Amino acid sequence: MTLKETLAERGVSAEIDMDGGTVTVESLGVTYRVKPDGVIDGDGPHREQIERIAGEYGERATGPT
């Protein structure tokens, strides 16, 4: 499952940017970009939710450390 699909499963609509790796989420007029390395650009009311989902996705994708 991709990050985009994981976000959609949690009710967050997202798109893949032209670079093929960055996931863009727009919510309440704020744009958030989740880069392949996990860095999130954008500051608004849904940032923590997106960070949590992206973090959980990253943990599943890389497995336990």
Explained architecture:
This protein has 65 residues and is an alpha+beta fold. Helix content is 35%, strand content 23%. A four-stranded antiparallel sheet has the order 1-2-3-4. The radius of gyration is 11 Å and the shape is globular.
Extended strand count: 4
Based on secondary structure, the structural category is: alpha+beta
What is the radius of gyration computed over CA atoms, rounded to a whole number of angstroms? 11 Å
Mean pLDDT: 90
> How far apart, in Å, are the first and last alpha carbons?
20 Å
What are the secondary-structure elements, in order, as H or E? Answer: HEEEEH
Q: Can you give the helix content as a percent range?
A: 25-40%
Instruction: Please give the largest β-sheet.
Output: 4 strands, antiparallel
Low-confidence stretches at least 5 residues in length (pLDDT < 50)?
Answer: none
Shape label? globular
The DSSP helix count reads 2
How much of the residues is beta strand, in percent? 15-25%
The order of strands across the largest sheet is 1-2-3-4
Sequence-ordered SSE layout with sheet pairings:
Layout: H1 3-9, E1 14-16, E2 23-27, E3 30-34, E4 40-41, H2 47-62
Antiparallel strand pairs: 1-2, 2-3, 3-4
Provide a short characterization of the protein structure.
The protein has two helices and four strands. It is α+β, with helices and mostly antiparallel strands.
Give structural attributes.
alpha+beta, 2 helices, 65 residues, 35% helix
